[in-house]
Amino acid sequence: MKRIRLTREQSRDQTRERLMDAAQAVFMKKGFVAASVEDIAASAGYTRGAFYSNFGSKSALFLDLLKRDHDVIMKRLHSIFEGEATRADMEARLLQYYSVCYRDNKCFLLWVEAKLQSSRDAKFRAQFNAFIRELLLMTTAYIVAFSERAGTPLPMPAEELALGLTALIDGMQFFYTSDPQGCGAEMSESVLAKFFSRVVFGAEKAGTA
């Protein structure tokens, strides 16, 4: 079979993806501080020079990893709008997503590492906080779009709802990851489903959770 020759841009994209995949594995195994540029490059099969030709720093790569994960989340959320879905369909899909999203995020430890690094490093904290504000704006915009598309009235300002939902899911992921026996899947899904059903969709839907 004839080997397909990649363009320079395709080759660069492939190198970046391999470095990011390697960094994700190394960060989750060693932690951000303990992981070195050399560790990441070697794990991906490249040199230190290849790393710096694609990323300005380890922190820059770290933020790109988090953005990539968030992009996946937003893509899944926007898929809720697909097809000729009714309001009931879209609400059911969103409820299902938020009830189980805590267990599907394989990058949760990356976000924990980012928060720890943010508390230790002022320069990284400034970058990370700016990044988080951007993500919250994206989440807020999604909530507004969902409300308009589904015709579901918002129980509070969209920016407050975005912050509250993000904090709740982060907290449930932490409890589920650190103590799966005390806060197992059934408990986690019940908490998220009931909160979402009552707070987001209104008290009249509480009985459906």
Automatic annotation (TrEMBL):
PROSITE patterns per record: HTH_TETR_2
DNA-binding region, residue range(s): 36-55
Keyword Transport recorded: no
Signal peptide: none
Domain HTH tetR-type: 13-73
GO molecular function: DNA-binding transcription factor activity; transcription cis-regulatory region binding
Keywords, sorted A to Z: DNA-binding, Transcription, Transcription regulation
Superkingdom of origin: Bacteria
Gene3D superfamilies tied to this protein: Tetracycline Repressor, domain 2
Protein name from the UniProt record: Transcriptional regulator, TetR family
Organism: Caballeronia sordidicola
